[in-house]
Write a structure and sequence with these properties.
Blueprint lengths: L1 H5 L20 H13 L4 E5 L9 E2 L8 E2 L2 H4 L33 E5 L8 H24 L10 E6 L12 H6 L2 E5 L7 H10 L1 E10 L4 E7 L2 E7 L2 H4 L7 E8 L3 E7 L2 E6 L1
Length: 274
Amino acid sequence: MNNLVAEGWLPQLITISTTPQYTCINATALKERIRTFYNNGYEGFVLIGSHPSIPTAFWTYDAGSTNLPTDLFYADMSNWGSLNSAGAFVPYSPNPSNDVLRGFAPDMIYGSISSGCITDTIAQEAVYVVYVKSYLNKIHNYRVQGSNLDTESQKRSLLLQDCNDYKQDKSVPTYLRRVTPQVYSLFDDSLTTPDRIEQELEKGYKFYQQTIHSSNDYHQVVVWNGYNMGYSDYTYNRILTNPVVPKVNFMQLSSCSACQYNAIENGIIVKKII
């Protein structure tokens, strides 16, 4: 809270357990609570907690698809429609000529920190807590100590769009223009090799957004062998172990998966960011 105040924000902390009027029985009720703050000029929020105190919102393409959890529901003030029989929102119907994901758009800055257990044992959870604290400390240090980038690097952002599903849409999101005055784009999947990505990030960027295929183990960039399309697997571990320190302050991964669930440390399976 002190960090936010120091940056000029006017934050408000609401503790559900001591403020009963903010207790929400479902995702729709929580969104309406957030909407009241949005209507009063608040620009963002962070949800801290887990179900049932913080209800989980789910969405799906259609009745035959998997129900997927989403925090975006709370930040998008649009009406997502009613729930299906499985308790998930079906905001759009699949349309081959119009990617349904383009319908999702946040109206507020948002984030969430889960307090629920995501591992199988207390020992595994202890390792997970260390990673969460390390991540939060990085954010704190950035705010207190400032950026480690030079002045020129802080002026630019990088947008990487490798997925064939999106290659026809070469527009730069408006919010990137607000983050930095200079936005560099890589839309050609013949250029977005792991080596090229590594070289670009070493140049220094304030913000980096990646739209790319991923699994639980690897990010997958498109590679071509003649007319045959394939994928080259990589993780950001190769960048972290590179002698050249990566110079990116903020990274947004728009990928199917951004975490490695089967990393083993000291005999314990842990969740690691890739």
